[in-house]
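Interim report to the steering committee. The following record documents the input for Cation diffusion facilitator family transporter (390 residues).
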Amino acid sequence: MIKLIVKTFINNYEAIQDKKVREAYGVLGGILGVICNLLLFILKLTIGMLSNSIAVISDAFNNLSDLGSSLISIIGAKMSNRPPDPEHPFGHGRFEYISSLVVSFLIFSVGFQLFKSSISKILAPEKVVFNSALIIILAFSILVKLWMFSYNRYIGKTINSSIQNATAFDSLNDVLATSAVLLTTLISHYFNFSIDGIVGLAISVLILYTGLQIAKDTINLLLGSAPDSALVQDIKTRVSSGQYIVGTHDLKVHDYGPGRILASIHAEFPDTISTIEAHSIVDDLEDQISNQLGINMVVHIDPLSTNTEKLSQVNVFVNQEVRKINDQFCVQHIRITEGLHKTNIIFSIVVPSDIKESEYKGISQTISKRLMAAQNHVSIVVDSVVASNT
C-alpha cells in the first residue's frame, strides 16, 4: 500500500538521490504519522477514560508523543533540505539528526510522566470497566501500528533516514505496548485481577528505553560514527577498478546528514603515468561515485615508486623492524610514494589467527611508531591488518 501512496504523491519517486525527492518522502511519512496517531490518540483517550484504564490512557498519550514526533519529522525533512549558506557550507542535512534527538526527548518525557501515573495506579488500584468497544479499538490500533512500522521502515530504508528508522522502531514498540494493554484488559475482566498499573508501568519503561536508545543512536551520528563497512568496501572497490590504479589507502568519510556525504581517498598510480592521464582517470571515478552513490568524492593521486632497487631496500628495512616487534608478523604489498620532503611507505600486515581483531589498531600504531622512529622523513601507512589463513 505504501508503494502505491508513494507513486501517487511523490513525483519522480525513484530518484532518491535528488534532495527534493528525499524531502518529499520525509514529509509524506510525517503526514501519514500525524493522521494515524491523531486518530489513535482520540480513540484511545476516549475509551480509556470511559473504561477507567490507566494503561489505555498511557498508550493514548504515547500516540500523542508519536504525533509530535511526526510533526518534527516533517520540519526536519524541510529544514535539512535547505541549501548551504556561508555559516553552513556543507548544508543543513544534520538537522534531521537534531530532529531525531528532539523526538527522543519527547518520547522520554512522556515515558517519565506515565511512569509516575502508573506508580500511583499501583498504590491505589481501580477496576477497569470492560466493554467490547475497548477491545475493538485496541485491536484496530495494533493493526494501524503494524502498518506504520511497515511504511516507516520502507521509507527509512529507501532514503536512509535516521528519523524514519527511529519512528519505525517506535511503532514496533507501540505494537508490543498495545498488545500488553489488550492482554491486561482481558485478564482484568475474566480473572477479576487488576494488573492495569503494573502493565502501565511496563509500558512506561518501554517508552523510556526507546527514548534513550534513539537519543544514543542519534548522538553517535552527530558526533561522527564509523562509516558503514559495506559503503567503505564499495568505495574502495570502485576506486581500485580505475585504470592503472594499483592500490588505495587513507579513505575518510564525513557524514553531514543524509545525502550529504563527503569522502576522500588516496589512489596509487605507478610514477610512470603522466599527471594529466591520472587526473583524467580520477575525475571519471569521482563523477561515477557521485552519480551512483550520491557521495561528493575526492580522489587524491599518489605516484608509486617503480624503482625496484629502492623497493627492495625498503622491503628489507620494514620486515626487519616488524619482526623485532613479533617474529610471527608478515609484511605484504609494500608500496612507496615519494615526495620532496618525505616518503610514504604503505603495506599490509598479516598476523597470527589467534590475535583478536580488537588488537589490530594497537598493532598498526606500534608498527608505525617504531618504523618512523627508526627512519627519519618517512610516513607509515598500514592499510590493513589481516589474520593468517594458516
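The chain has a mean pLDDT of 86. The committee is asked to note this result when reviewing the revised timeline.
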